[in-house]
Amino acid sequence: MTRPRVCAAILRDAAILMVRHEHAGRNYWTLPGGGVEPGETLEQAVLREVREETHLEGRVQRFLFAEPYPGGLNSCFLVAVDAAQTPHLGLDPEETTCPPPPACCATWPGNPCTTCAPTHKSRASSPPWR
Question: pTM for the full model?
Fold first, then answer.
């Protein structure tokens, strides 16, 4: 079964927002994104995924690229967010064992997180800027 996916490149200064996942013993970083729901456009899906995973409200600036993945095609968009917004880790509905939000927090460069316990562990954790 094929299912289109989307991802968002969200830039701030010289940094890009990434989401850390822990799954099946693996720890990896990825752009916010996920599967397109039936009836959604790619643009609607990428904004929903950004909202779900980072609690940011964005606007699509432009399409960047598409690449195949095992389940279909992944389309990436440049997404702009207001500079006053602060990302907070949300819930990824595709990962059913994630704790409810906020599992941890996220910060812009230079703003350390003050709400997370240093020993906090979850399957998904803060989306930092890299």
Answer: 0.74
List C-alpha distances in Å: 41 to 10, 45, 60, 100, 127. 19, 6, 12, 27, 25
**Rounded to an integer, what distance in angstroms lies between the CA atom of residue 3 and that of residue 61?**
23
Chain centroid, CA 90 distance in Å = 9
Q: Write the burial class of residue 15 (CB in 10 Å: 0-12 exposed, 13-18 middle, 19+ buried).
A: middle
Q: What is the pLDDT of residues 60-100, one digit of tens each?
A: 999 999 999 999 999 999 999 999 998 887 766 655 444 44
Residue 15 near residue 84, CB atoms below 8 Å: no
Q: In 3D, which of 96, 112, 108 has the Cα closest to residue 34?
A: 96
pLDDT, tens digit (0-9, with 9 covering 90-100), for 3-56: 999 999 999 988 899 888 777 888 888 899 999 999 999 999 999 999 999 999
Which residues in 22-37 are b (16+ Cβ under 10 Å) and which e?
eeeeeeeeebbbbbbe
**Phi and psi dihedrals of 35, rounded to 5?**
-75, 145
Compute the C-alpha angle 24/7/80, nearest 5°. Answer: 135
